[in-house]
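sry for the spam today, last one i promise. struct tokens for design, 317 residues
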């Protein structure tokens, strides 16, 4: 033993020092044991609070609105996959930065400076190729999903020609040959704000494939029902389309998502998804009130472009 080389007094001091060290290590370990349950308790309480407050389901869908069409879930899945991929890259990069900062921090013996490394070709090729591949995969997946969302090959049960106009909407029910005419929700002379009662109302049957055919009377608008988790521009002279399958009854807000002028923010509408009977009742009411025929594209400021005419539903102008 090294201690045997010293006088008795020195050995005693060393034994006391070792005992103290052991003692303080045992104290620290005990303290850690006391701390551990507290930490797990805090995490468990946080998790429970999150679930009980309803944040759990919102978090599962990446804080997107609750979907009410069949297209919703694929959009949520893609959104979650995208941000998880982005966060993983972020965590990796932040981790590497912190590790470099700690492991290669300046030390006392680094005077003036340690050897400097200027470049590393294999590493640079790696961190160029990997992000390019990741962006390519994200791009490919985006195109794939977008193609699915805009697929209109299947025959729809209900076709609605949605017409955007400053600052309201007309809805032509193409097959039923009835229409809803949106009134401007604002009295511009009096400066009154729009009220929900005056909003145009689109009624759709539940569990039904609906095709929206989008046209504009004047300027560019965008047809957006947040709970559909997709939106599409409404462009003068063009005919844009998409389909949804309604999955849930309820009343959902719709709005214009393209700045289209002074009262853009009041270009609102309401979507009511109802039972088949209620839908038929709604169509019957429109017929009874004389809203028959179509508010077609002859009312637009600009003609539908010749190469777009084929995209209009049969019988529409
Ligand atoms: Cu608009």
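last one done:
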């Amino acid at each position: 033993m090294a201690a045997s080389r010293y006088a008795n007094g020195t050995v005693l001091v060393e034994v006391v020092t070792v005992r103290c060290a052991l003692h303080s290590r045992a104290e620290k370990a005990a303290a850690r044991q006391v701390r551990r349950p507290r930490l797990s308790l805090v995490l468990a309480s946080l998790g429970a609070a999150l679930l009980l407050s309803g944040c759990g389901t919102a978090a599962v869908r990446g804080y997107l609105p609750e979907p009410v069409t069949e297209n919703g879930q694929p959009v949520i899945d893609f959104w979650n996959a995208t941000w998880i991929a982005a966060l993983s890259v972020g965590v990796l990069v932040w981790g590497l930065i912190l590790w470099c900062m700690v492991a290669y921090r300046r030390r006392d013996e680094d005077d003036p400076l340690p050897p400097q490394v200027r470049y590393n070709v294999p590493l640079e090729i790696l961190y160029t190729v990997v992000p390019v591949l990741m962006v390519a995969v994200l791009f490919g997946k985006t195109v794939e999903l977008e193609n699915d969302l805009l697929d209109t090959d299947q025959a729809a049960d209900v076709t609605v020609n949605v017409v955007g106009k400053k600052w309201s909407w007309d809805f032509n029910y193409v097959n039923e040959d009835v229409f809803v005419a949106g009134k401007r929700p604002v009295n511009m002379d009096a400066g009154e704000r729009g009220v929900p009662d005056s909003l145009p109302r689109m009624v759709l049957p539940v569990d039904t494939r609906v095709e929206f055919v989008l046209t504009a009377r004047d300027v560019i608008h965008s047809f957006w029902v947040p709970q559909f988790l997709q939106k599409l521009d409404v462009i003068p002279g063009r005919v844009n389309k998409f389909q949804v399958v309604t999955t849930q009854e309820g009343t959902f807000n719709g709005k214009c998502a393209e700045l289209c002028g002074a009262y853009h923010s009041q270009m609102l509408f309401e979507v009511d998804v109802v039972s088949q009977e209620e839908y038929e009742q709604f169509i019957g009411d429109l017929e009874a009130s004389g809203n028959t025929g179509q508010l077609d594209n002859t009312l637009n400021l600009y003609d539908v472009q010749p190469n777009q005419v084929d995209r209009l539903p049969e019988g529409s102008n």
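Residues 158-311 form a domain with the Immunoglobulin-like fold (CATH 2.60.40.420). ok im logging off now
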